[in-house]
Design the sequence.
């Protein structure tokens, strides 16, 4: 970091450039850097070495207790645990379900929050404010509570089935199906996406929309050519955060999903706890981490792009 | 208190106890703290915090008991690691007495202080086989998985496993058990079906030691379970996530039959969350599993004398009465003749001294994993 210092002289202020790296700035940035290195970087590194079969040092105790532990047979380790996971009959199903739920739920969340935010931006009024307020409520309900609420609503003895049976209709039991996971994840992810996208749309000046309308643009054209392009950054941020959140979800698929296949968040916990295979659970965690990194790259790219457009870098 | 001092004190007290035969707590000049670690459901927390600890402190005013509680054993792996690491590094693990499923694992790893009748006089009343199975753990209460049934719809419950399997196929959608990784009651049904195809010797080996070679013999049992998918409650072979969900499905009448823990069922009945028309029975040939819960004193504990005193007291008739009555409704580990007759009336028809044990945890973990990859949704 370079700093500029001004010194007062008789003629006014003299600006001295390029003092070199500021020690003060460095001193300020070291504590958070160390914190991240020690509490995030180091555990990831130790986890990576354990997944590759380094079973001594910090991994000694966990390898004493865990089952089906593979020890390294090359200087760089072994891929045996990775091979275990890839050849496990459960893994492909779990990965498929995880990707399916993540993609479908993210699309649904973004479409729903876009339509609510556009409704509020273009039409406005009391009704739209009420709609936005209502849709934010799940933000204040703990996930475990909402999971049970959805469970009792769509379960075998739930409200939907009881209600429809009054009219002789056999409503399907949705719990223990991927549909219930999608309902649950959309329910819990919607508020954040709405907050993000609606604030992005609110920031677009009225003048732009009005001048487009004056030139005869249809509402659809206003949305596709003005509102969505100008709100692109918050939409991408909302999409990537929603997708990463759903990818790592645990409570919703545990309570609402089928036993098998299940989402990787639940399977990692099963492998770590119930099956006592810490190495294999770490391997799955790294795979989830890889997918999440892919999503994160989209997020960073969008941030860089918007910063460049606004001239910050 | 430094380690040296506490060791000296421990030596002094053990000498004193040796002379007086563990009966002279009032002569304790220094108040001592016994650290108890409990890894279980809330009913066990209540047992300790509301019944056992207050009664123990009344009997032994020189001692203070500090209870650490871990719900559902979520941190069993970490606690096992901590105690293992403490033993390796010769450090204080911060625990003197453990009540949890991982006690036998610690015992098998040689990390527990071995109980014997000289140091724990009350252990002479405990069933030998149960004590041996603990590998250093001290059995202090029992519970069993039972078959719960809706007596309004089922007049005579199946008496054997074969009869139960026939009943399940004759009544589609009316039986359930929870996923074995989610709770012991569902796990017990899975092990029982798998055991049907194993010899007595093989079953015994799986209880005693890690035996990966025998796991191929589970195939028949797992196939039987897979074929039950279309007859159990839930579409495409889906199962309740945990013990509580099975109880809920029985209470709301979604299913007519399911496997439940004896103590959880009795507590629910007493609390009124389980209707009175739901009853329990044991099946035979093979029976559903059950067993003792064990207390463990880590070798590295800094207050082994206090822990031993508490463990010995828990095996006394006074404490066993508290386990049997109260809200827990646990099985005692000492003969019923030594206990309050009115409290033990509930055990009529259930042989509480000869419970069929579950597998060693390493084998049980593998069975849970195999079930998940071969049964649900297949």
Sequence:
């Amino acid at each position: 970091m370079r700093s500029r210092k001004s010194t007062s002289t008789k003629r006014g202020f003299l600006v001295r450039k390029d003092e070199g790296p500021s020690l003060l700035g460095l001193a300020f940035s070291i504590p958070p850097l160390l914190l991240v290195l020690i509490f995030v970087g180091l555990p990831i590194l130790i986890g990576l070495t354990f997944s590759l079969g380094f079973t001594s040092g910090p991994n000694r105790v966990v390898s004493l207790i865990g089952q089906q532990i593979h020890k390294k047979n090359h200087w760089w380790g072994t891929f045996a645990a990775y091979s275990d996971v890839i050849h496990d009959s459960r893994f492909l199903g779990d990965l498929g379900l995880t990707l399916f739920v993540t993609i479908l739920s993210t699309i649904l969340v973004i479409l729903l929050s876009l339509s609510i935010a556009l409704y509020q931006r273009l039409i406005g009024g009391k009704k739209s404010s009420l709609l936005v307020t209502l849709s934010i409520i799940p933000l204040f309900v703990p996930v475990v509570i909402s999971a049970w609420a959805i469970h009792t609503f769509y379960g075998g003895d739930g409200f939907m089935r009881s209600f429809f049976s009054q009219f002789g209709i056999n409503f399907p039991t949705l719990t223990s199906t991927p549909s219930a996971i999608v309902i649950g994840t959309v329910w819990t992810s919607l508020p954040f996406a709405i907050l993000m996208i609606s604030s992005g749309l609110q920031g677009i000046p009225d003048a732009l929309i009005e001048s487009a309308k004056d030139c005869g643009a249809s509402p659809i054209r206003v949305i596709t050519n003005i509102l969505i392009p100008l709100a692109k950054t918050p939409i991408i941020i909302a999409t990537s955060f929603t997708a990463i959140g759903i990818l790592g979800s645990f409570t919703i698929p545990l309570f609402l999903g089928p036993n098998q296949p299940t989402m990787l968040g639940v399977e990692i916990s099963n492998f770590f706890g119930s099956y006592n295979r810490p190495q294999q659970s770490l391997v799955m965690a790294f795979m989830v981490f890889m997918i999440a990194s892919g999503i994160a790259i989209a997020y960073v790219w969008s941030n860089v792009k918007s910063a460049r457009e606004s001239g910050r870098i | 208190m430094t380690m040296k001092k506490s060791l000296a004190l421990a030596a002094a007290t053990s000498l004193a106890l040796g002379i007086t035969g563990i009966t002279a707590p009032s002569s304790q000049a220094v108040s001592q703290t016994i650290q108890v670690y409990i890894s279980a459901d809330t009913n066990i927390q209540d047992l300790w915090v509301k019944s056992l600890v207050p009664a123990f402190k009344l009997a032994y005013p020189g001692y203070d008991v500090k209870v650490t509680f871990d719900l559902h054993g979520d941190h069993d792996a970490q606690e096992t690691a901590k105690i293992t690491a403490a033993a390796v590094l010769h450090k204080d693990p911060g625990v003197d007495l453990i009540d949890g499923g991982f006690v036998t694992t610690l015992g098998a790893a040689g990390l527990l202080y071995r109980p014997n009748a000289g140091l724990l006089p009350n252990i002479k009343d405990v069933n030998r086989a149960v004590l041996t199975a603990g590998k250093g753990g001290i059995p202090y209460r029992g519970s069993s998985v039972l078959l719960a049934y809706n007596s309004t719809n089922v007049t005579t419950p199946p008496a054997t496993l074969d009869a139960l399997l026939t009943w399940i196929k004759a009544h589609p959608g009316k039986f359930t058990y929870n996923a074995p990784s989610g709770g012991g009651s569902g796990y017990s049904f899975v092990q029982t079906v798998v055991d049907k195809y194993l010899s007595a010797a093989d079953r015994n080996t799986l209880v005693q030691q890690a035996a990966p070679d025998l796991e191929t013999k589970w195939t028949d049992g797992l196939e039987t379970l897979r074929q039950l998918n279309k007859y159990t409650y839930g579409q495409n072979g889906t199962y309740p996530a945990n013990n509580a969900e099975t109880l809920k499905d029985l209470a709301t009448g979604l299913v007519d039959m399911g496997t439940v823990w004896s103590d959880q069922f009795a507590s629910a009945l007493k609390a009124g969350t389980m209707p009175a028309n739901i009853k329990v029975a044991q099946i035979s040939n093979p029976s559903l599993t059950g067993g003792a819960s064990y207390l463990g004193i880590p070798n590295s504990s800094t207050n082994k004398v206090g822990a031993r005193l508490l463990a010995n007291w828990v095996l006394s008739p006074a404490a066993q009465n508290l386990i049997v009555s109260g809200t827990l409704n646990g099985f005692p580990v000492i003969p019923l003749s030594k206990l309050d007759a009115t409290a033990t009336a509930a055990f009529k028809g259930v042989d509480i001294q000869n419970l069929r044990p579950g597998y060693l945890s390493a084998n049980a973990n593998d069975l849970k994993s195999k079930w998940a990859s071969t049964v649900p949704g297949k």
The first helix of chain A runs from residue 23 to 51. The mean pLDDT of chain A is 88. The interface with chain B takes residues 61-62, 64-65, 67, 88-90, 156-157, 173, 176-177, 254-255, 258-261, 270-278 of chain A (CB under 8 Å).
